[in-house]
Design brief:
9 helices; 0% strand
């Protein structure tokens, strides 16, 4: 099961030294490109591309992207993106164990983020014993308030 395009849309080489096109499109004032190059050097393309992907879901993508990449907000933004990437990685692992459909990744990410790892592991173990593990996992996770 290939969930790479669902996790982070990485179509840019990290070794090229230039910013991805998605990031450049979101920067309205090109005078701030050096700031984004510095963020790229320090944290890599994955973080910037994830922020660009999230920005596209907002009403004013370039304004949101500028706000979260500002110097004042960068610490909180980096913590949020790292947590999101870690949660996504755990959700992909759960999906691989259950042989789940990749189109349900958002639901799995939400479920993994809202419940403890022990509870998720318990549900995975119980679901793997069933005929349709992904469906049983959804039933177990859906029944909890």
């Amino acid at each position: 099961m290939d969930t790479t395009p669902f996790v982070v849309r990485e179509t840019h080489l990290e070794t090229s030294g230039e910013l991805p096109g998605d990031v450049i499109d979101l920067v309205d004032n090109k005078a701030y490109l050096p700031r984004h190059r510095k963020l790229q050097r320090e944290h890599g393309d994955k973080v910037l591309l994830k922020l660009a992907e999230l920005a596209k879901t907002k009403g004013k993508p370039s304004r949101w992207y500028a706000t979260v990449t500002s110097v004042a907000n960068w610490g909180r933004t980096l913590a949020m993106v790292k947590e999101l990437l870690a949660t996504t990685r755990r959700a992909v692992e759960v999906m691989a164990k259950l042989d789940a459909d990749p189109t349900w990744l958002r639901w799995y990410v939400k479920t993994v983020a809202t419940h403890s790892e022990a509870r998720i592991a318990q549900w995975v173990e119980r679901a793997q014993r069933g005929r349709r593990p992904a469906r049983l996992f959804a039933h177990l996770a859906g029944g909890v308030s």
